[in-house]
Design a protein that fits this description.
Length: 481
């Protein structure tokens, strides 16, 4: 009996090994073996060094040039597309420090200057707390700085300017888990007419300052800001891997840090992921490991999120039917608390086939060495370039509502964990949580001053490898089988 059981176990073991090997096709294995975590991390670090890479600024141009050169180095003939003009800004430098009382010096760290803040000459002023518009008091304001416990609304901003405030310091008192020691970055109205700068500071620093002010401590700050606000053209870079037909898939990612911060995870990670998929697939085609794909692939790094992809759609409005599908990378460099990769959005009917393919990839590779511990599709959350190619947005752009499958691949979204009702009929075997809901991984550094490589992409570099593997394997199944 014992012998029989042992034999049975041995057979099951070898059967598992054979099935395991079969699941991994030689082409997929080849692709996986070429993915370089080192390159992925390095590209993020290099991109972040250019600054926030906003389209139409020097920093954005440098990042676009970097991507262009990389594609060229991988054997492509990349194109540079000059997107339509747009008002943009660069924060060239700033200072924000507590001067008095001495014991609070050094309290403000990892602060950030809000987007579209005007320049302001160095000044030393007292700080007062304003809880709501009703609290605005012109007498106590007296050309001083104002501390707010949330980002100013447009109305609040205008009222404070009218009341004579010279600068706003804001934190985010309503978000509990993120931004404790770093700043959530805000953007003011997109205009060159803003009168006073806004500094974003961390929750801990903000709460402490508020306490001190409420106790009656006289707080004096030193600040200055140097910014440039002008029109510019972002640059979108396109590298094409030619296929047997001119129908094509887009693998895209926004190249700017849309928050205006360092944007390592959001979205240098996505750009780096594109470069890596492009590098490997082009090399495999060039050295004949792979034949020409059934359809072409356009690797696109958008100069400015939404703006560039919208402009692309309008420019190609008479031939949108050539787009077989869009796969978008946004935040593939971090994700707490699960080790999950997500494929969005399964509530769009015509995304079905593409997402089923990704779901299968997620299931085939779950728990394998170097892969995710969980994988799932999830409903639409919005907020990335894949949405530009879906009927609702196409309608807004006044172009024909082509049914283009368009999905986003990511490992984190938002600054807090979020739970979503799973779409009916979608249940990934690689999801370990409750089948009716999806818990979305998050990054506490989302849109903050510390979305930097050391805390995101260098801390959890495996996430980018997952993103590249998922997309590479899916593309091989789509275009080479
Ligand atoms: Zn993003």
């Amino acid at each position: 009996m014992k012998e029989q059981r042992r034999l049975y176990r041995t057979i099951v073991f070898y059967l598992c090994v054979v099935l395991h090997l079969q699941a991994q096709s030689p082409l997929e294995s080849k692709f996986i073996s070429k993915v370089s975590q080192k390159y992925l991390q390095k590209n993020v670090r290099e991109l972040v060094k250019f600054g926030n890479r906003l389209g139409g600024t020097k920093s954005g141009d440098k990042a676009a040039q970097y991507v262009f050169e990389k594609f060229k180095g991988y054997g492509f003939k990349p194109e540079i597309i000059k997107d339509p003009q747009k008002l943009t800004y660069s924060n060239d430098g700033w200072q924000l420090k507590i001067d008095q009382p001495k014991r609070l010096r050094g309290l403000i760290q990892h602060e950030w200057l809000a987007g579209f803040s005007p320049s302001a000459r160095r000044d030393t002023v007292h700080l007062s707390f304003v809880g709501s518009i009703r609290d605005i008091d012109t007498r106590t304001m007296d050309s001083g700085a104002v501390l707010l416990e949330r980002q100013p609304s447009e109305k609040m901003y205008d009222e404070l300017v009218d009341a004579g405030a010279c600068c706003i310091v804001s934190y985010q008192n309503d978000i509990s888990t993120a931004y404790s020691n770093w700043a959530m970055i805000s953007t003011l109205k997109e205009t060159d007419k803003n009168q006073i700068p806004v500094f974003n500071i961390s929750n801990n620093a903000g709460r402490r300052l508020q306490e001190e002010l409420e106790k009656g401590t006289r707080v004096v700050i030193k600040y200055s800001a140097k910014t440039t606000i002008r029109h510019g053209n972002s640059k979108t870079i396109i590298a094409t891997l030619k296929g047997q037909t001119d129908e094509y898939y887009i693998l895209g990612a926004h190249g700017d840090s849309d928050s205006g911060g360092p944007g390592a995870d959001d979205n240098a990670s996505g750009v780096s992921g594109i470069l890596e998929v492009a590098r490997i697939l082009n090399t495999m085609v060039k050295n004949k490991t792979l034949p020409l794909p059934k359809k072409s692939i356009k690797f696109i790094v958008w100069g400015t999120e939404y703006h560039s992809s919208s402009s692309y759609v309008k420019l190609h409005s008479d031939r949108l039917e050539k787009i077989a599908g869009v796969i978008n990378f946004d935040e593939i460099g971090f994700g707490k608390p699960r080790h999950c990769i997500y494929f969005e959005g399964n509530d769009i009917l015509h995304n079905h086939d593409l997402l089923k393919l990704f779901e299968k990839v997620g299931e085939d590779y779950v728990n394998k060495k170097g892969f995710w511990k969980e994988a799932t599709t999830n409903p639409s959350q919005g907020g990335s370039d894949s949405y530009v190619f879906l009927p609702e947005y196409l309608n807004r752009l006044d172009v024909s509502e082509e049914k283009i499958p368009s999905i986003t691949v990511f490992t984190a979204a938002w600054n807090e964990p979020r739970s979503m009702q799973q779409t009916r009929g979608w249940r990934s075997k690689a999801w370990k949580g409750h089948p009716d809901s999806v818990k979305i991984d998050y990054s506490p550094y989302y849109h903050s001053s510390l979305d930097i490589p050391a805390l995101t992409t260098d801390k959890e570099p495996a996430n980018m490898v997952w993103g590249v593997n998922a997309v590479g394997i899916a593309l091989i199944r789509l275009l080479w089988q």
